[in-house]
Design a protein that fits this description.
Helix content: 25-40%
Strand order of the largest sheet: 2-1-9-8-7
Radius of gyration: 36 Å
Largest sheet: 5 strands, antiparallel
Low-confidence stretches: 1-19, 24-28, 393-408, 469-475
Order of helices and strands: HHEEHEHEHHHHHEEEEEHEEEEEEHHH
Structural class: alpha+beta
Shape: globular
Number of helices: 13
Mean pLDDT: 86
Strand content: 15-25%
Number of strands: 15
């Protein structure tokens, strides 16, 4: 019910708000170059942070570098500005697909999945009624960027989810919201232009970070050539290549740390590019929106080189722990900082995730800039001050009469409280058993004493009778 309400509210909000995306209008090449030059000369927003290393200038209208494991934003230019994504949309399509289907599931191509295609749309020539496995379809989606494959995946997985194409699109919006995306709205699975289909550089970095958690998707994105075998309708194989130039050795745009990504382009979106990199120290997501052809690769490389050269991880477990935090969930929790900025310079924001369990998320900030977040266990005192919820048990009247003070469980997890409760119950049962045994022993002792008393009384009577008989004999 909660998801349904969220979906309805999202639909109402979308219908009632007109989104005005940055538009670029020019009539000739000179104007285009002027716009490009102006964009390049616009300094990244992160340059305004005191003590932050100066970042490279990029041609992209919006750009970001984000540490995928901590969420730290290390380079940013208009990261929350809404832009058209083009085919990088397919990263979210792939994510929702793998989370709701299996590699062996069949993808059946309907008339609708083919008929919308225009002559210059990316496709791999699928026919109505043709069938691919989900695995083959994902290769066609992420490598060939095939638009009919994106539609068919959405249609078939949507049916598996109990609806159809629109069900899948709603799932894309819901999943993006779950990941923390706040500036996106998705109307299709392929990224073809729609005024109501938009995202931000930050949102795409969040999506890329989640995609990177699925090794099967990384394996697909790292493949350079793939061949789909014959199908139920076509006797020939189809071979296509990876479009992301940073994955191809031997070309000028190759980047040794690149582990995956997705390209995109429409006239309205310009060139869009998502790239994931891992140098063994940090896993980064780079996103550029409204860029210019191969300049997207130049921008991305410049941002990667800048980040790997200027930033390093700072372990949170080696720092003094804030009073509000009992423990870090991740034993490798960290923030990412440049030289000259210290842990003591940071502020933090805490979000309570589960007040009963005392769990939360802490985000460390430098002058408002996210430099890393992680999940934590919070102290009961902080949970109570933040939410009003307390884990302390109330003192009942009976306990008060005897001056007993029942203490708080101090935020012990549910399983811990269950074990403690079970132990307490066992202890009570043990006490009751001991008391019963003692009562039984006391009862047996009383019976034994009574018997001894009766026996002693009998002996006294017997001695008295013997004494009386002796006296009568003597007389």
């Amino acid at each position: 019910m909660r998801k349904l309400v969220k979906s309805v509210l999202a639909a109402v909000l979308t219908a009632s708000v007109v989104i005005s995306l940055p538009a670029v209008a020019y009539a000739d090449g000179d104007d285009a170059e002027a716009v490009k030059k102006k964009s390049y000369e616009t300094a990244p927003d992160t340059d305004s942070l005191r003590g932050w290393p100066e970042g490279p200038k990029v041609y992209a209208g919006a750009a970001i570098i984000m540490d995928m494991d901590s969420g730290a934003i290390l380079y940013g230019k208009n990261i929350d500005e809404k832009r058209y994504p083009a085919s990088i949309t397919k990263l979210l399509t792939a994510l929702v697909a793998v989370e709701n289907s299996g590699f062996e599931d069949e993808i059946v191509f309907s008339d609708d999945s083919i008929s919308f295609l225009e002559y210059d749309d990316a496709h791999i020539g699928m026919k109505p009624g043709e069938i691919l496995s989900m695995k083959d379809a994902l290769y066609g989606l992420l490598l060939a960027s095939a638009n009919e494959v994106a539609y068919a995946i959405a249609e078939n997985v949507g049916e598996k989810m109990g609806g159809g194409y629109d069900t899948f699109i709603q799932a894309m919006n819901d999943r993006a919201a779950e990941l923390g995306c706040t500036g996106s709205h998705w109307t299709n699975a392929n990224g073809l232009h729609d005024e109501n289909h938009y995202t931000t550089a930050h949102d795409m970095a969040l999506i890329a970070a989640e995609v990177s958690e699925h090794q099967e998707l990384l394996d697909i994105m790292q493949t350079l050539n793939y061949t789909i075998g014959t199908t139920n309708l076509v006797d020939e194989t189809r071979t296509f290549q990876q479009h992301h130039k940073m994955l191809w050795q031997g070309n000028s745009n190759y980047y040794e740390y690149c582990i995956g990504g997705k390209t995109g382009y429409t006239d309205d979106a310009g060139t869009t590019l998502v790239t994931m990199a891992d140098n063994g120290q940090m896993r980064l997501a780079a996103v550029v929106l409204y860029d210019y052809g191969t300049d997207a690769y130049v921008d991305t490389r410049a941002m990667f080189d800048y980040t790997y050269s200027n930033f390093s991880k700072i372990s949170l477990l080696e720092q003094e722990k804030p009073d509000e935090i009992r423990s870090y969930t991740d034993t490798e929790a960290y923030v990412v900082l440049p030289a000259g900025i210290n842990y003591e310079d940071l502020e933090m924001e805490i979000t309570v995730l589960d007040e009963k369990e005392g769990t939360g998320k802490v985000t460390y900030l430098y002058q408002g800039q996210n430099v890393g977040s992680t999940e934590v266990t919070l102290t009961p005192e902080y949970v109570q001050s933040a939410t009003g919820y307390t884990t302390r048990l109330q003192i009942n009247e009976k306990s008060a009469e005897f001056g007993k003070d029942i203490r708080a469980d101090e935020g012990i997890p549910l399983w811990g409280r269950i074990l403690i409760g079970a132990g307490a119950a066992a202890a009570v049962l043990a006490v009751l058993l001991i008391l019963a045994i003692l009562r039984h022993k006391r009862k047996k002792l009383r019976i034994r004493r009574r018997r001894q008393q009766m026996l002693a009384e009998r002996r006294r009577r017997e001695r008295r009778r013997t004494h009386d008989r002796q006296r009568r004999y003597e007389l």
